[in-house]
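Hi R.,

Here are the chain sequences for the assembly we discussed:
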Amino acid sequence: MEALEQVVHYLDRAHDTGFKAKAFVRALDVVRSVPPDELQQRAEAGTLTDLDGIGDSTAAIITQALDGDDLPYLADLDAKTQVPITAEGERYRRALKGDLHLHSRWSDGGATIEAMARTAIALGHEYMVLTDHSPRLTVAHGLCADRLAEQVADVEVLNERLAPFRILTGIEVDILEDGTLDHGPEVLSKLDVVVASVHSKLRMGHDEMTARMVRAVASPDVDILGHCTGRLIGKREPSTFDPDYVFAACAQFHTAVEINCRPERLDPPRPLLQMAVEYGCYFTIDSDAHSTGQLEWQPHGCDRAAEVGVPVERVLNTWPVEELLRWVAGE
Ligand SMILES: [Zn+2]
Ligand SMILES: [Zn+2]
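And here is the predicted structure of the full complex:
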């Protein structure tokens, strides 16, 4: 199971969503559901491929892993799927102490909170903010106040086990059409960090969108503006708004501008990021990961920050956790 999880992790970080990646995810599901004794027997008898969802290559890996053999496929895949980073970007990556935007199985992520945290620890992070979706995003199983409270309780238990690593509580709250938020202050003020993002009506008029975003970033409950244009490279045009108003508001109301590291987003685009720097905004470099492998995407945003000359000391997740918490508390 661990070997297959590792394969899926490597394919995820390479943003491989093709046939092979799907086959491994499927095989992992099968392995999770078959009793270990049966797997062992089938490996010895050479009948693993009789299981629906196990093919020749997955069967080979399972057999090697059960025998305690070297896993050449895994080593090869590790080498082939390293996320590239420039020398300039590396300076930012080395400075990062955490990740402030990521999802778990509670909403539309593919991994448990614990799996995400353990991967973050392996990447050298000291903390992460769990930011699952808010209820409006029904397709992503957004969290209502009750489920969010349950999640916060789970995080508390996990934190005892994973200390000194810290999982901070949070949410990626939807910015509704009028600029209000998909949870009230009674919910949001209890969370450590709030990312606010536009996920609906991305095509609304320029002035309306400006007012919507300014209203959201001016909210005392919002700490970070997520993927500000909503673009999906090659698939969806960026939304249009007046960046002068939005970034001036971010600077004035202490809302950081997220540099979203997802390869299909890389949001904000360079000219907008440049403007945000000129307005003296704060920033975050966040993976927006929906699986463990995607936590390795921060280099994409680090390269972008380096290109545009984002001051590294203005990137919130290069700060120690206590300093970050003081900033989001407005102290
Ligand atoms: Zn989002
Ligand atoms: Zn997200």
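The chain has a mean pLDDT of 96. Residues 101, 103, 172, 288 surround zinc ion (ligand 2) (CB under 6 Å).

Let me know if anything looks off.

Best,
T.
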